[in-house]
Amino acid sequence: MTPVLVASDLDRTLIYSSAALALTMPDPRAPRLLCVEVHESKPLSYLTETAAGLLTDLGDRAVFVPTTTRTRKQYQRINLPGPAPAYAICANGGHLLVDGVADLDWHSGVVARLAEECAPLEEVREHLAATADPAWVRKHRVAEDLFVYLVVERELLPEEWVKELAVWAENRGWTVSLQGRKIYAVPKPLTKSAAVREVARRTGAALTLAAGDSLLDADLLLAADRGWRPGHGELADTDWTAPGITALPERGVLAGERILREFLKAARQA
Question: Which Gene3D superfamilies does the protein's record reference (predicted)?
Answer without folding.
Answer: HAD superfamily/HAD-like (3.40.50.1000)
